[in-house]
Specification:
By secondary structure, the protein is an alpha+beta fold. It contains nine helices and 19 strands. The chain folds into two domains: about 170 residues, D-amino Acid Aminotransferase, Chain A, domain 1 (2-Layer Sandwich), CATH 3.30.470.10; about 170 residues, Alpha-Beta Barrel (D-amino Acid Aminotransferase, Chain A, domain 2).
Length: about 425
Amino acid sequence: MPVRRSKVLLVKWFFESQHKLQTIRWCSSSLRYKELEETSTQGQLEPEPPITASIPGVKPRPHITPEISFKHDDLQVTLAAPYQLQRKPDAIDLGFGKYFTDHMLKIQYEKQLGGWQKPKISPFEPLSIHPAAKALHYAIQLFEGLKAYRGVDDKIRLFRPDLNMERMNLAAARSGLPMFDGDELIKCVKRLIQIDQEWVPHSETSTLYIRPTLIGTEATFGIMAPESALLFVIMSPVSAYYKASSDGAVSIYADPSVVRAFPGGVGNRKVGSNYGPTIDATARAASMGHHQVLWLFGPNHELTEVGAMNIFTVYINEHGDKQLSTPPLNGLILPGVTRRSILELASQWEDLTVKEEVMTMERLIMLNNSGRLLEMFGSGTAVVISPISRVGFVDKEIYIPTMKQPQPVFQRVKDTLLAIQYGHIEHPYAVVIS
């Protein structure tokens, strides 16, 4: 009995003192790092020059401690058992974000354990999160969206994933969440895609949507940078995002009573708090027969974004030239990967002037009334290019001749992007997954 009682007391003490043990583990880990650091620098009078990689084409990887980033080399993979594998839906049934692949990537961040932990790929499963996690109460979370495309050569490609990583880190810095090495996450995501490669649709009308997400998981009510976080990546085969009209275009409503973002805010960061508050305005627009909201700002009703897309206009400028324009990145607008790619690609076309400029509703109406407004379209990862044929504004209905152009710019842009993404042409924007 005394022995059994002592065991019970020991177990009870263990559960009551886990926080103390965690501190001990952290201290031991810190001491070990310090010991290794002292050992490596002992006897050195000055730092050694960096080691150059001996393999051609391979860049030497800088030394990254767990406090700065996780590493792909530490990736641990647990494959799903046969009974955990899901039936792959037909392309016609996909929709957007209804089905998910068999595996997911998870990377924990624990400040007391030295920062980023080892990345893990495991079978897809629900998350276990504390009810007091900061992500649930203060929207300390962010996400990204990119796609994997199965090309005409059956190779799988990503489209400029480095820009998604750059944007994700900027959002992390603004949200008090830990930053990381974007190249390391891209490598981990590539491995995840390789494992679930059969989920990449064999189609040029469907893709595999990739959703990296970073959330604060520390269970405290204090509004401050979380000491624990979770970065996870899930994937979903998808088809068209919007259900357009019969002509393939969408109708949008410019509501001057609501704003999406404001100066000094986070309109230029991909955080969840930018999207939830748009649902009511979008529902009101839908009740009036429109597909999306055109977000305006200021007394001059400046165009900013449309739905979750960047917006473009095509018109005849004062010099008689055809001009492609989009609002400048002034802090109100998300720096879209597709937006940037359109500007870079179209700038090489000699028959088109490309410019970032402020566009107001007054000027838009003036251009349309004078017959100089030719097209409007939205751009984004989910939609690629979405032509716009009608704009509702206060008590006006503005009809845009986007779908009446003989050789529309939106179609030229869309065809060029899809050609790159599906491997019809070789281009540095496309990253092939070997």
